[in-house]
Design goal:
Keywords: 2Fe-2S, Dioxygenase, Flavoprotein, Iron, Iron-sulfur, Metal-binding, Oxidoreductase. It comes from Bergeriella denitrificans (Neisseria denitrificans). The protein is 19% helix and 28% strand. The protein has 315 residues and is α/β, with parallel strands linked by helices. It has three domains: 89 residues, Elongation Factor Tu (Ef-tu), domain 3 (Beta Barrel), CATH 2.40.30; 111 residues, Nucleotide-binding domain of ferredoxin-NADP reductase (FNR) module (Rossmann fold); 84 residues, Beta-grasp domain (Ubiquitin-like (UB roll), Roll), CATH 3.10.20. It has a six-stranded antiparallel sheet with strand order 4-3-6-1-2-5, covered by helices on one side. Strands 9-8-7-10-11 form a five-stranded parallel sheet, with helices on both faces. It has a five-stranded mixed sheet with strand order 13-12-18-14-16. The chain is globular.
């Protein structure tokens, strides 16, 4: 879809809030709390940004973009080049970070810009009358997003702002994360180290994996020093394709004329999920569960590789 940037607001020195409206005036598809959109940027990159405003009430999508110090090109491009009136291509909202269904209580742990999907979740849970507590970790007062909203009466007693790194104070996280209970779910979004700390603390307390949820827009660095060549076979025609050590499966398939949709290219969004007919995969994604890895029915060819000599793909 083509959207027009109709508003840009700065929050502190490092965050911009963008409002996107349909270029042709049509109705934008609705979305659920936790959803995100993919932005196709002018420099050829595709980046994912959470929709923080919930529910959609005025036919607009709203995102927050942090100017990251180690930007891979996405946030830097938006902060330096995007202006009001610019046209941005986006996809229909997808939700890979949905709220659990059924009766529940919820703990939300936001680290910095990770407040964006959790803000939408917080609003949705309030509207549903669900018992919820939001812990918002941020460096200082200037970095707080949505401060005015979080201070309103209906949020009283449900939000705690914390200017402290949980990685430097693990006992703090331990005091905030209660023991697991039926119907109690934990959601977290923020830097990888922050989310790892939250998950590790919850897991140490006995939380089941199905009650722990997190949003990933950046994968942990991969060690590719021991990559080796292998082959993939196309199940529909039997074609054998060589995958060299320095290229991904999706890169080679595209060169050979086979279409596999990709977005993040890091194994965190699930766009490229491909069915596996035969072979053993070296899973490197952070999208599938450990159980799905063990089943070996699907994998992410954007980053994963082969343990066996050949992978047979349902293409």
């Amino acid at each position: 879809m083509k959207t027009r940037v109709t508003e840009i607001r700065s929050c502190g020195s490092r965050i911009k809030l963008l409002t996107l409206e349909p270029e042709d005036g049509s109705r934008l598809p609705d979305y659920t709390a936790g959803a995100h959109i993919d932005l196709k940027l002018g420099n050829g990159l595709i980046r994912q940004y959470s929709l923080w405003h919930y529910p959609m009430t005025d036919n607009a999508y709203r995102i927050a973009v942090l100017h990251e110090e180690t930007s891979r090109g996405g946030s830097q491009y938006i902060h330096e080049h995007i202006r009001i009136g610019d046209i941005l291509d986006i996809n229909t909202p997808r939700n890979l970070f949905p709220l659990a269904e059924g009766k529940q209580r919820a703990l939300l742990f936001a680290g910095g810009i990770g407040i964006t999907p959790l803000m939408a979740m917080f609003e949705a849970l309030l509207q549903q009358g669900v018992e919820v507590k939001l812990y918002y970790f941020c460096r200082n007062e200037a970095d707080i997003l949505f401060a005015e909203r979080l201070q309103q009466a209906d949020a009283a007693g449900k939000v705690e702002l914390i200017h402290q790194s949980p990685r430097r104070s693990p006992e703090l996280l331990s005091s905030l994360i209660e023991a697991p209970a039926d119907g109690l779910h934990l959601y977290t979004c923020g830097p990888l180290g922050f989310m790892d700390a939250v998950f590790q603390t919850a897991s140490a307390k006995g939380w089941p994996s199905e009650n722990l949820h997190r949003e990933l827009f950046q994968a942990a660095p991969l060690d590719e020093s021991e990559n080796r060549p292998f082959q993939v076979q196309i199940a529909s025609n039997g074609a054998l394709i060589d995958i060299p050590a320095d290229k991904s499966i999706t890169q080679v398939l595209e060169e050979e004329g086979y279409f596999v949709p990709v977005s993040c290219e890091e194994g965190i969004c699930g766009t490229c999920l491909t069915h596996l007919v035969d072979g053993e995969v070296l899973h490197r994604d952070q999208f599938l569960t450990e159980e799905e890895h063990a089943e070996g029915k699907v994998f992410t060819p954007c980053c994963s590789r082969a343990r066996s000599d050949v992978l047979v793909l349902d293409l």
